[in-house]
TrEMBL record:
InterPro entries: AAA+_ATPase, MoxR, P-loop_NTPase, RavA-like_AAA_lid, RavA_ATPases
Name of this protein: AAA family ATPase
Entry-linked PANTHER family: ATPASE RAVA
Gene3D superfamilies tied to this protein: P-loop containing nucleotide triphosphate hydrolases
Signal peptide: none
Species in which this protein is naturally found: Denitromonas halophila
AAA+ ATPase domain span: 41-179
Length: 468
């Protein structure tokens, strides 16, 4: 059994295994990462896509990453019978009035299995698979036997919409849409070897390796910040009408802990949540929704979000505009309205209503004392300082992402690029808001001032509450 001192060696071994899994398969690197991670966590993967997209090639390679146990593979059709998966009935057992199967060499005896066209089987087979996939147990006659199953990779062209299929679909923690190779990589596809090969892997994992990894995974901590974000996501999924069972949430957290353990981390990182779309979304559309939700929040606290900061800056800009437009009536020392011919705001001669009396008013732009202006500029200075701290925090998150993505075995490079672009955009947006805040400060500094007197302190500018 490997020891904790060889943790980094396991990480290097996993990197080499990942290279072997995806070697020669164009645009299947992320799929290989997901399938292997699911197996390390003791979970199952489902590849969903049209024929001829290397689903079976990738699934068949997975068992080469493990040195112990048997491999089982079967293509199901609507005519498939339970004997094809679970083994033939035992004649000798029947003679003794026992209904048992010979499971050696079949799915209950396998550690890694590939089941192609999983949803083409009838409901009897799918129901029998439910317990085997989830509890690793198989009802054989009057008894229930433990199965050595590590992971099943399923493949299908489409997921049917019925109750039995939905329950079976939920047993696959990783739901991985597979598309044909993109136009940009088409030439590479044509130049790739036609023989994907089944040569033994140079690196393989033993049951002792898996047991040690499980013990390390159990010690990984999930920070409160990650738990809080998962809670927010759960509420968001309700609004997206994406259904996620409690069992799946528990399995997802264990998968996140496994990802951290394989990289010798004591805590789950918020960037590990990039794995969630494939675990929570049932199809490409829902997975895209979840990924977008995560990109809007990973590395960006609510108080740092540009929309919220924009509202705060706009509150100061609106206050400045109001103070610039404010007018006061001008009275002299005796309390009489001060005016001159050039200062009349308006003059009305009303011969009919007041014996030709003149009605005169005079307004001037409001002037502010030093106390008022200093209070306003101090408020903006506090805002600018807070924005500077936020900018530094987002920049630190971008650097943390860069380090994580470089070291991570499991992060999808496309998600890492999208997250990096989102953080860079946030940094630019915060910088623009800082400039607007500086302009508002200059505006408060330039307010018309009282000729004498310090004035009074104003009420603070009202804006959304925020966290530091």
């Amino acid at each position: 059994m490997i020891s904790a001192s060889t943790h980094s060696q396991l990480t290097l071994r996993l990197k080499r295994i990942l290279d072997q899994l995806s070697e020669g398969l164009v645009e299947r690197d992320t799929l290989a990462r997901r399938v292997l991670l699911a197996a390390l966590a003791g979970e199952h993967s489902l590849l969903i896509g049209p024929p001829g997209t290397a689903k079976s090639a990738l699934a068949r390679r997975l068992h080469l990453a493990f040195s112990d146990g048997r491999y089982f593979e079967r293509l199901l059709t609507r005519f498939s019978v339970p004997e094809e998966l679970f083994g033939p009935l035992s004649i000798s057992a029947l003679e003794q009035d026992r209904y048992e199967r010979h499971v050696a060499g079949f799915l209950p005896d396998a550690s890694i299995a590939f089941i192609d066209e999983v949803f083409k089987a009838n409901s009897a087979i799918l129901n029998a698979l439910l317990t085997l996939l989830n509890e690793r147990e198989f009802d054989n006659g009057a008894g229930r036997i433990r199965c050595p199953l590590v992971s099943v990779v399923g493949a299908t062209n489409a997921v049917p919409d019925d109750e039995v299929a939905e329950a079976f679909f939920d047993r696959f923690l990783m739901r991985l849409p597979v598309e044909p190779v993109s136009t940009g990589r088409f030439a590479q596809l044509l130049a790739s070897p036609t023989d994907t090969g089944m040569a033994p892997f140079a690196e393989r994992l033993s049951r002792e390796d898996l047991a040690w990894l499980a013990s390390v995974t159990a010690e990984v901590r999930v920070p409160d910040t990650v738990i809080a974000l998962l809670g927010q996501l759960r509420s968001a999924l309700d609004e997206m009408t994406v259904s996620v069972s409690d069992r799946r949430w528990v399995k997802v957290v264990y998968l996140l802990k496994t990802a951290a353990a394989t990289e010798a981390r004591a805590d789950v990182s918020m960037w590990d949540l990039s794995l969630l779309p494939a675990c929570l979304g049932a199809d490409r559309e829902s997975q895209h929704q979840i990924a977008t939700w995560l990109l809007d929040r990973l590395g960006i606290r609510m108080a740092i979000s540009p929309p919220r900061l924009t509202r705060v800056v706009e509150a100061f800009e609106a206050q400045l505009a109001a103070e610039l437009k404010a007018n006061d009536l001008d009275y002299d020392a005796d309390g009489r309205l001060r005016f001159s011919a050039g200062d009349l705001a308006h003059e009305v001669g009303d011969a009919k209503g007041g014996a030709g009396a003149l009605r005169m008013t005079y307004q001037r732009k409001r002037r502010y004392g030093e106390v008022h202006i200093e209070a306003r500029t101090a408020q903006v200075d506090a805002l600018i300082a807070r924005i500077a701290r936020y900018a530094a925090e987002v920049q630190a998150q971008a650097e943390d992402l860069a380090q994580y993505a470089t070291a991570s075995l499991w992060m999808d490079p496309a998600f890492a690029d999208a997250a990096r672009n989102r953080l860079d955009g946030t940094v630019l947006a915060i910088a623009a808001l800082r400039e607007r805040a500086m302009t508002a400060r200059a505006g408060f500094e330039a307010l018309p001032r009282l000729a004498d007197g310090q004035g009074t302190a104003p009420d603070p500018v009202v804006h959304d509450a925020w966290d530091d």
